[in-house]
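Morning!

This is the sequence you dropped in the shared folder:
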Amino acid sequence: METAEFNLLEKTELRIERIALRGANLNQVARLVADVLGLERDEVLVIDARDDLLTLDILRRTVDPYLVVGKRTALLEALGRIPGLTVTPETDLCSEGMLGWIGMDAGEAREALDRGSEMAEQIRGRIASRAIVFSTGPEVIRGQIEDTNKPTIARRLEEEGFAVAEGAALKDDVDYIAASLREAVEDLGFGLVITTGGVGAEEKDRTIEALLSIDANAATPYICKFERGHGRHAKDGIRIGVAQLQGALIVSLPGPNDEVKIGMKSLVRGLDRNLKKRELAAEIAYGLQVRLREKMGAARSHSGGTSQS
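The structure's back. Tokens below.
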């Protein structure tokens, strides 16, 4: 089972109380504490030394609890071997937050950690299986066109075992779209978020920009490219996008329903293969590129090109 690191929540001090100091090497103390707790040696620093007290700071934000739990006895025994540092029966370790696990009974603490890890894994599984679908565009918001994309996507995901919610239609605004995507992941706990529309080359198309605002490393491959400024093309092409936010996957597909179906076929296939973000985006883009070439070929044939009967 993969072990998650716990956030120390700014409580990074470890105090060694009721000891006797006489010429002890504080650098040696810091190195020993790091070794016993499984930390890097430059991650532990002695920040205060008095007659019967040493205070150390752990220079990191997270820690693997399995590395520190129940280490009190081992740490005190090791400290007692340092020249100039005397450990007595009254010597103790004191810390708040996660570092307090050092003093817990190892067996009981590990059982508690195992239960917590199992619960966390179950929660992650439930989140990963929850999906929400958003459409974009004023035509959908005003009810001028039927939103066929949400039910199309919902049916396909439900076939794959997802619990699917239909989100609101989003206006073409970068900040509004980005805020809605963040809320879906951070507040509502969805593990898969899908948007349709707003990925084109017109100025009003803002979904990809919103995606990049929440994940600067989002994969946004082109489906096709245009000459910027030609006709209504304010941008240089049509892109899809795959982003990640706090472990959740966000996928932005085009608006036409036939392209949504093709994109979903590629998405499901990629999820089954556990593809990474960029691989998944490439898989989706390729399927849509093939479809676009077919459309363009059919259009040229219809407009006067040669055809076979």
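Headline: The chain has two domains: 6-106, 125-298.

More detail when I'm at my desk.
O.
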